[in-house]
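Office hours follow-up: a student asked to see two folded examples consecutively, so here they are.
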Amino acid sequence: MKSLLFDLVIKVIYIMDMTNTEWYRIFLHTAKAGNLTKAAQELHVTQPSVSYAIKQLEDRLGVKLFDRLSKGVRPTPEGLVLLEYVERSFALFDAAEKQIASLKSYASGELRIGANGPIIKHVLLAPLDKLRARYPDVRIRLSQGNTADLARRLKEGQIDLAILHLPSSDPELTIVDSMSIQEGFVVGPAYRKIAEKPLTAAELARLPLLLLSRGSSTREFIEGWFSSHGISIEVDIELNSSEMLVELAGRGYGAACVTRSFVRRELEEKLLFEVRTTEEIPERRIGIAARRDASLSLVAERFLKLLLEDQADPYDLSK
């Protein structure tokens, strides 16, 4: 008996892709109704269609599923085993449909996005606040990292969207060139006089320099700028946090390289002072990246629109 039931379960697993799912629906209604005619009425089909479906299942599974009674039908022991699995299956189908409806209405789902600290603070927080206010049941998973780390996590499927410094030519990613940023150097009140007139790159290099650690795209960018003027720099303080660079610059430790817009408040309140340069530091671009071979979730698409809603021509990363 156990062997027969085991064989039945194995057959069900292997033929699910081959068998019309409607046959199982008809079997379920018939088992519940206990009558072929009642099952046909519930399903809005003919009674011969019900009989045919039951016969097809019995032939495929190689077992009898119903005992025919004078006033209806009753599942056989094998039919009861099948009934248990079919009930579970259709319950899962119903649950799946409800979950999809929930995702479509943003009553569930999650957004997985990554960026560096300053971009999180100055670029992402506003649209994230909008998303959370409009769809409070959406789970937000926000992680921090540099461009190389975020690109790796994006390709590994750990996050759905990443804000990266450009340029990036990774063939596995689709990247929207989103906005420009301007890097520059700032100092605290202790170096205020230095900020009164533009410095050459060589003069700037003689100051104590506070930069992000090696491996960050910002560090590579600013070292490249100095190198383009024939200057090799020595860095006094290397940190992973732009916020800490700003803090130390304000305390008089030297000139910190930061994105100008990220210290706008400090500059306006005279907590920091911008060190102007005679040789222009080029603007940089940042972009929103997604995997080229993966569709965005509905939540990620919605957040992308919120992020780009102020732009005249929104981009579509879902293609």
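And the second, which I mentioned at the end of office hours:
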Amino acid sequence: MRTAVLYATREGQSELVAQRVASDLRSRMIEADVINVKDIRGHVDWDAYDAAFVVASVHAGHHEKEMIEFVKRSKDELERLNAAFLSLTLSQAGAELESNTPAQREAAHADALRMVAAFATETGWRFEHSLTVAGALMYSKYNFLVRWVVKRIARKAGFDGPTSRDYEFTNWPAVDRFVTEYAPP
């Protein structure tokens, strides 16, 4: 049994999630190849895989362009493998932030689901299993303009921490449960 764990990332959080997915699979004695879609040159040997997970983060309301293009080219193979999709977004962090009101959490989760639906529409991929995952604020990796924009997005999501440090919001137990539920038998 071999699984492809495909990811696209900007600051590295999607890669961390992809590595965690692979680690969870390996703990179940399933081989896992972690692949940055940006590094794919040419053809993927889809016959080598029995399953797949796709991990992509959202920036400014959209998933990474390289993941969108990859999925457009590979949607038939991903559907054949019944690939599962993990979408990283700060909106999900707002949905999980306990200091937010129930209405704020509901609106944030709806926004996260809207981005998943937009990804499906844009790529044409019909996946059956998806999880919205809270990502991270990597202020140390942003330039001034990006830091300013992300700070505004974070504030809208209900988080107003200082930009002098990074923040990780990923709900690792939720990722683990998702992998356990959708890992190949």
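Two things to take away from it. The two ends are 9 Å apart (CA to CA). The beta strands are 2-8, 31-36, 51-59, 62-63, 84-89, 129-134, 136-137, 167-168.
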